[in-house]
Amino acid sequence: MKKAFKQYITYLSIVTTIFFSPKLFASDYNLPFVNTSGLGNLYSGWATEANDASTMATNPAGLTKIQNKQFVASGIGLFGSAKFSGSANTIPTLSANETGTASTKLRGFLPALYYAMPKNNFVWGIGVNIPFALGTNYAKDSIVRYAATRTQIVVFDFMPAIGFKLSNKLAAGIGLDIDRMAFTVNHMYGFPFSTPDSELQNHLSGWGYGFHAGLLYDWTEATRVGINYNSQIMIHTTGDSKVFSTTSTVRTTNQKASAALPTLTQLSIQHQINNRWTIMGTLFYTHWSSFKQLTLKNTMLPSGSTFALTIPFEYHDTFDYSIGTNFAATEKLTLRAGLEYLNTPSNDHDRSPPDPIGAATIVAIGGHYQQNKQIGYDFGYGHSFFKQTKINYLTPIAFATGHSTQNSNVLGIQLTWNMV
């Protein structure tokens, strides 16, 4: 049974990865885009809104607000670009620096599915989404090719959850997070490791387990407070490392790496001013300092031997802030707007071309249209304004120094089906 379940989740994650081709995201690889219903106000009601069954991901206590069986399908697309400017090469003491620019496009699709079912004083839920992802794809002849070509991290989260009332005003909820991580780290080898250049490809995947839990308190009929906590999840991955040259291919299937998904805490408050206006805000805390570096054991060299490649990150903890509003334009149409500031966990001393993003300010608009009692639609659009970031990357096999500029947009739609 356990083997069949893992095979099922692996299949789902493969299908998701086929449709999800991330190139660049947010201010780190923690994605808030778990639904479209929260996109329009930039998730400023993360732990309080409980608009639909997707609340099982943001605060499972919100499931108690779901009155009927409900199915939610959300899809969010991301598009934009990043551009590195500076110098890079292999070992600086042995090679002349290359100076110029290198660009990567952004295009990605984030699907999410949720189902909630009230039964016996509880509301049960099950859902799937992508809470973490990161990716860049530089050309194999770009100036940063020795630091990075294709880099992709995708975390697929399968979550059974439950919400229940503790009193008329207080509700609680908990969800299990069954995560599968798959990542690719590719780059080119140059002199003195390889002449001419050869390509290194690392592909790894693995499983991790954790939980998230929340409380939702209706302070008054108009004011609601919520808090949600996500545990740290350690994922141990295995895979293969291959080097392709003009004359041969060398490979090992014994590559290993471990990565920690950070602890998250979200605190939200919202207040309904009148029949039309609702305001809300959320404070996001991410314990990024648990992610210091990534070590790829048994990484292949062109010579056929292996070594441990350590990529420094040295992330620090972050606080992010979001405020938003909802406006009930008609009985069927609600409009949304939001503003969010995303800090960056990376630092100017260790930031790399595969992870070039700095702090950003995001603005968004969106809305909800309720066609009838059964069917509702959500839509949202957001644009990110990034600060220019400094790149300073150094490993035993490559370096890159300079700066990066970015732009990105997100566009989402969602269907909510109430089974009444």
List descriptors:
420 residues, mainly beta, Porin, 14-stranded antiparallel β-barrel, two-stranded antiparallel sheet, 2 helices, 19 strands, elongated
Number of strands: 19
> If you average the pLDDT, what whole number results?
88
N- and C-termini, Cα separation: 33 Å
Provide the helix percentage: under 10%
Q: What is the N-to-C order of secondary-structure elements (H for helix, E for strand)? A: HHEEEEEEEEEEEEEEEEEEE
- The total count of helices amounts to 2
CATH superfamily placement: Outer membrane protein transport protein (OMPP1/FadL/TodX)
Task: Describe this protein's structure.
It is elongated and about 70 Å long. It has a single domain (2-418), classed as Outer membrane protein transport protein (OMPP1/FadL/TodX) (Porin), CATH 2.40.160.60. It has helices at 2-19, 55-58, and strands spanning 70-89, 98-119, 122-137, 150-165, 170-189, 198-218, 223-230, 233-244, 249-261, 264-272, 277-286, 293-300, 306-312, 318-328, 333-342, 360-370, 375-386, 389-395, 398-418. It starts with a helix and ends with a strand. Residues 4-28 have low confidence and may be disordered. With 420 residues, it is mainly β. The longest helix has 18 residues, at 2-19.
Short overview:
This protein is mainly beta and 420 residues long. The protein has helices at 2-19, 55-58; strands spanning 70-89, 98-119, 122-137, 150-165, 170-189, 198-218, 223-230, 233-244, 249-261, 264-272, 277-286, 293-300, 306-312, 318-328, 333-342, 360-370, 375-386, 389-395, 398-418.
